[in-house]
Design a protein that fits this description.
alpha/beta; 2 domains; single chain; elongated; 13% strand; TIM Barrel; 42% helix; 8-stranded parallel barrel
Length: 615
């Protein structure tokens, strides 16, 4: 084994990247459910070695052995109790081989999960743990990691067992739910209380499993105030969903990376992943947090500037014509146009001029939709407002700029008179034509809403005064058909709390789904604009249904589009379906944003004018 100081020194000097899940990764690779995944170290060692090697290649500093549920009680259920020693020995050696093959120091943590049953006596519990530790130590692990422990008693039992092996470093990690408590209802203050009277103390406290990146963020904010012992955070990849009888984790590597950077800035000594995370998650986490290590560790003393007094924001109705209409509950119309791929804005400005003449209130300009590369939406918006006279709702995404760059662009918006801003987190670069580009994601749309609200009050994100304050109308996106409705509702609540003043939905093809969503968010008193996308053809409908994130088209709509034979008939059907959707939701929304498919504003105007209601 490596000396105890090796792992401890790494924790002191750098941000340590742990690996991700093993069990769900094996499941993803079609390991048969209902069997002991830990036994695969004996029957399919190449598979286990491959997973470890991929985590090493991804940048993990610590590998975790495939022994989470290899305690005697669990192995007995599979008739494998007599193979306990062999399973642990093989698992440790497989991880050791992958670690030793790396071109940098990589450590191995022997994983021990919670006992499924609690023997009557402490001595029995400690004996069950001790036999696992002994086998893992023989296999060459660098430390023992007690993972996903359910309560304080379990932590104390693990620590007591390790007193017999004072030369073996160990760490204690426990599961925290969304409410900041263990499954047994114990608070963080109890879980992180010092282990009194024990000579052999843990290297670090860990929080893993139980919840996703956001839930552990909240827990970490409290934990850093409760202990000076290093903290390691390993969230699940969100909350799993049952899809086609499989448990699917939907959290993207980019999303996890956003939170990993936040963990480090809060003071976490290590980050990694738990259920649902894989090598692709760890690779992006490692690339993001390792450069932060020294800067973060060096900045221990925080000098707070004098408090800057917030100024009263410009009243909403005075910020723009769109803001006035929303504040006075006037029906609003907007048409979405993509910025061109080149730099010639002539056609775009001509289209916006036509929209203005037809009485459309605003035009929406997306920011790199589906991770495409187009001319700057800010430049596009500025030219449109100056030359076409129509107001712009500028989409502002968090993918391509760091926080400093984003604040600079928000100030540029204010200088250009662009006051209607819709904040979106942004699509990951891998979705677009530039998959090797990197996403920054210093924050998400919620964070940028908070930044803009502060700018409206005359304070920048560094606490410095801004004079005069900005006067932006703050908008956010909504997805009424999101797979994870609970998460979507929670994020909307947080957007409103951060300062959102209006919202625009993803394209609505199912009015009933939108109405149900509106029922669920009716306590949030901000105007909601319905996104409407007239289908240009059956082929267009197939593309949207299968290739555009966040778009759900009901089967009956697809059937109507397919039944229309000619392209002209399909376009007419698409316009009619859009108008019917508006009629269904008109009394519940503040207005509509109509997309112009393939940049054809005539189609968008046909929807708006053909609907024919003067609001």
């Amino acid at each position: 084994m490596s000396s105890p100081g090796s792992v401890a020194e790494l924790l002191r000097e750098a941000v340590v990247v742990f690996d991700g899940a093993m069990g769900t990764e094996l499941y993803r690779r079609h390991a048969q459910p209902g069997r002991s995944f830990e036994e695969l170290g004996l029957s399919n060692p190449d598979l286990i070695r491959q997973v470890h090697s991929e985590y090493v290649d991804a940048g993990a500093d610590v590998l975790t052995t495939n022994t989470f549920a290899a305690n005697r009680a669990t192995l007995e259920r599979f008739g494998l109790a007599e193979k306990l020693h062999a399973i642990h020995l093989a698992a440790a050696r497989l991880a050791r081989q992958a670690a030793d093959a790396a071109d940098r120091p990589v450590f191995v943590a022997g994983s021990i999960g919670p006992l499924p049953t609690q023997p009557q006596y402490d001595e029995q519990r400690e004996a069950m743990i001790f036999e696992q530790v002994e086998a893992l130590r023989e296999g060459g692990v660098d430390l023992i990691l007690f993972e996903t422990q359910p309560n304080r008693k379990a932590l104390e039992t693990c620590a007591a067992a390790m007193q017999q092996l004072p030369d073996v470093p160990y760490a204690l990690s426990f599961a925290i739910g969304e409410q900041g408590q263990t499954v047994d209802g114990e608070p963080l203050s109890r879980m992180l209380a010092p282990l009194e009277g024990l000579q052999h103390q843990p290297l670090f406290w860990g929080m893993n499993c139980g919840t996703g990146p956001d839930g552990l963020m909240t827990a970490l904010e409290e934990a850093v105030r409760l202990t000076s012992v290093p903290l390691v955070v390993q969230p699940n990849a969100g909350i799993p969903k049952e899809i086609d009888y499989r448990r699917i984790y939907l959290c993207s590597p980019e999303y996890l990376t956003v939170y990993a950077k936040r963990y480090v800035r809060l003071g976490a000594s290590g980050v990694g992943g738990c259920c649902g995370t894989g090598p692709e998650h760890i690779q992006q986490v490692a690339e993001a947090v390792k450069p932060l290590a020294r800067a973060t560790r060096a900045t221990r003393v925080v000098v707070r500037p004098a408090e800057v007094e917030e100024k009263t924001p410009v009243p909403m109705e005075k910020r723009s014509r769109l803001a006035w209409r929303l504040a006075h509950r006037k029906w609003v119309t907007s048409v979405e146009l993509l910025p061109p791929r080149g730099y010639d804005l002539t056609a775009t400005i001509d289209k916006c001029t036509a929209l203005y003449r037809h009485g459309v209130d605003a035009t929406n300009i997306p920011d790199g939709p589906r991770a495409s590369c187009r001319i700057s939406p800010l430049v596009t918006a500025d030219r449109i407002q100056r030359q076409a006279k129509i107001e712009v709702i500028l989409h502002f995404c968090c993918r391509d700029r760091n926080l400093i760059g984003m604040q600079a662009d928000l100030l540029a918006c204010a200088a250009c008179g662009i006051h209607n801003i819709l904040f979106v987190t942004g699509d990951p670069p891998k979705l677009g034509n530039y998959p090797h580009a990197t996403g920054v994601f210093d924050t998400d749309s919620i964070g940028m809403v908070a930044v803009q609200r502060r700018l409206n009050c005359g304070i920048d994100m560094g606490g410095q005064p801004i004079d005069p304050p900005t006067a932006a109308l703050i908008g956010v996106g909504l997805d009424p058909t999101a797979l994870d409705q609970k998460r979507e509702l929670d994020r909307f609540r947080r957007k409103v709390e951060a300062g959102a003043e209006f919202a625009i939905t993803q394209p609505v093809f199912d009015p009933d789904a939108l109405l149900r969503f509106l029922d669920a968010v009716q306590q949030f008193d901000i105007p909601i604009i319905a996104g409407i996308w007239p289908l240009a053809s059956y082929r267009n409908a197939l593309f949207l249904q299968n290739e555009v994130p966040g778009v759900e088209i009901p089967e009956e709509v697809m059937a109507r589009m397919e039944a229309a034979k000619s392209r002209e008939q399909q376009l007419a059907a698409g316009v009619q379906i859009a108008q019917e959707s508006i009629q269904r939701v008109q009394d519940r929304v503040a207005g509509i944003q109509v997309s112009a498919p393939f940049g054809k504003i005539a189609t968008a105007l046909a929807v708006i004018e053909g609907w024919g209601e003067d609001r």
